[in-house]
Design a protein that fits this description.
There is one protein chain. The protein is mostly helical and about 220 residues long. The protein folds into 2 domains: about 10-40 and about 155-210, Endonuclease Iii, domain 2, CATH 1.10.1670; about 45-150, Orthogonal Bundle (Endonuclease III, domain 1). Helices cover about 60% and strands about 0% of the residues. The chain contains 12 helices and no strands. Helix 2 packs across helix 12 (about 190-205), helix 3 packs antiparallel against helix 7 and helix 8 crosses helix 9. The longest helix is centred in the C-terminal third of the chain and has 16 residues, at about 190-205. It is elongated and about 55 Å long. This is DNA-3-methyladenine glycosylase II. It catalyses: Hydrolysis of alkylated DNA, releasing 3-methyladenine, 3-methylguanine, 7-methylguanine and 7-methyladenine.
């Protein structure tokens, strides 16, 4: 059964369960404090929002998203599917991102892709379903599962802030690689998503800067 982090109380319950299960997390929690649940809208708009922010500063991503969401009312897969590529480009999207969003829109329109059902899938299976889509990398897939679907076991193994937090919090000699992150997180199944929230909060506490989407 998939656990969902729909509310702040869901996250708090999950974090307390993790600390009870893995005593190494207790000092991490004492420094991090209780993380705040981050949620964004699910579906095409939520994934498109994340795609728009790939490899951009927070300010640049917000500006592009603001122009996009203002240009289309409603902003949905059908609007993007029918929009001219040059119009999307004038709003600030790169050719690669236009291609990604157009492909997503066509797949959803043809009912070959249902982003919402991923919330009920095994986290690893859902991750692989997303990264099989052109232009959707591991980080984008995991952020969508965590923040848009509230998937309780999604694990952002490639996130540098989570990696750095684990290195410091668990006293590792080096920051773990994406491959090494999978076995490290095994003790936290099926609550790896809650663990990620905790590690982001810890990273913010020790580094004094955000390590994850701020909104």
């Amino acid at each position: 059964m998939t656990i969902h982090l729909e509310t702040q109380s869901d996250l708090e319950e999950a974090v307390h369960a993790l600390i009870k299960r893995d005593p190494r997390l207790k000092p991490v929690f004492e420094i991090a404090g209780m993380p705040a649940l981050r949620r964004r809208e699910p579906g095409f708009a939520g994934l498109a929002h994340i795609v728009c922010g790939q490899q951009l500063s927070t300010a640049s991503a917000a500006a592009i998203w603001g122009r996009l969401s203002a240009a289309f009312d409603p902003f949905d897969h059908d609007a993007v599917r029918r929009a001219r590529a040059d119009r999307l480009g004038r709003l600030g999207l790169s050719a690669a991102k236009i291609k990604t969003l157009k492909h997503l829109a066509r797949e959803i329109n043809a009912q070959r892709l249902n982003l919402d059902v991923l919330a009920e899938e095994d986290a690893d299976a859902a991750h692989h379903s997303l990264i099989a889509l052109p232009g959707i990398g591991p980080w984008t897939a995991d952020v969508y599962l965590l923040f848009c679907l509230g998937h309780g076991d999604a694990w952002p193994a490639g996130d540098l802030a989570v990696q750095e937090g684990i290195k410091i919090g668990l006293g590792l000699k080096a920051r773990p690689t994406e491959k090494q992150m999978a076995p490290l997180a095994e003790p936290w199944r099926p609550l790896r998503g809650a663990a990620a929230h905790l590690w982001w909060s810890y990273y913010r506490a020790v580094k004094k800067r955000e390590g994850v989407l701020s909104a």
